[in-house]
Amino acid sequence: MSVITKYGRDVVIKMLLLTLIIDAIAYLINLDILKIILFAFSLLLFIFTMYFFRDPERKLPDNLKTDDVLSPADGKVVLIENMENPDGGFIEKGESVFKVCIFLSPLNVHVNRIPVTGEVGYYEYIKGEYLVAFNHKSSDKNERTVIGITSENGKKIIFKQIAGFVARRIVCTLKVGNNVFAGKRFGMIKFGSRCDLIFSSNAKLNVKVGDKVKAGETIIAEL
């Protein structure tokens, strides 16, 4: 069963008011075809808003292990790259890492979930551009949050919430020092967007480019 996420209730209320205004205007119009168009538009707008902000329950995989990395988002894996970490701060600069990029379309569930149990050791919000989320340059240029977690086994992982061309608001409730648990909700990106995961290249990958993943259910890798 899906409910409306608490991260989107303000938008749902605003959209409800907007649809009521549109319906009121439609009611006052004498032209039948325009009346029908406005009523239909307001209905579709509200249905899409409710659908977008849905928040279905998720069950952790039965075989989940401490070193498993869950997907933080629903979507499609669009890039897997083995590279040297370009940034310092949490994972050492120059360390060999995997970057796994997940693209979220406007039709995906946009509530984000914690990928691994541990402690938040790094958090940064970065203002940026609004390139389309499937453009790989968006990882380093767009508005984003960068979150680092040290797992229970002392292994480090970074994940990013990245705004896209349509998405203009990132919600993240995490702070440095928080103890977090795999699969728990922590925020969302409103409308089409992207999530990146960065972790040691010693990890065993369980996904490939083109795979569809679900937040809190799909195991991306084993650290």
Strand and helix layout:
Layout: E1 2-4, H1 9-28, H2 32-52, E2 54-56, E3 68-70, E4 75-84, E5 96-104, E6 111-113, E7 118-126, H3 138-141, E8 144-151, E9 156-163, E10 170-172, E11 179-180, E12 185-189, E13 193-200, E14 204-205, E15 212-213, E16 219-222
Antiparallel strand pairs: 1-2, 3-16, 4-5, 4-15, 5-13, 6-12, 7-8, 7-11, 8-9, 9-13, 10-12, 14-16
Provide a concise account of the structure shown:
With 223 residues, the chain is α+β, with helices and mostly antiparallel strands. The chain is 20% helix and 37% strand.
Question: How is this structure best described in words?
Answer:
The protein has 223 residues and is an alpha+beta fold. The chain has two domains: 55 residues; 155 residues, Glucose Permease (Domain IIA). Helix content is 20%, strand content 37%. The protein is built from three helices and 16 strands. The strands form four sheets. Strands 11-7-8-9-13-5-4-15 form an eight-stranded antiparallel sheet, with no helix packed on it. Strand 8 and strand 9 form a beta hairpin. Helix 1 runs antiparallel to helix 2. The radius of gyration is 19 Å and the shape is elongated. The two termini are 32 Å apart. The mean pLDDT is 90.
Main sheet overview: 8 strands, antiparallel
Strand neighbour order, sheet with most strands: 11-7-8-9-13-5-4-15
Mean pLDDT over all positions:
90
Which homologous superfamily in CATH is the superfamily of the largest domain? Answer: Glucose Permease (Domain IIA)
Tally of structural domains:
2
From the alpha carbons, calculate the radius of gyration and give it in angstroms: 19 Å
Low-confidence stretches: none
Question: How far apart lie the N and C ends?
Answer: 32 Å
The number of strands is 16
Q: Which class best fits the helix and strand makeup?
A: alpha+beta
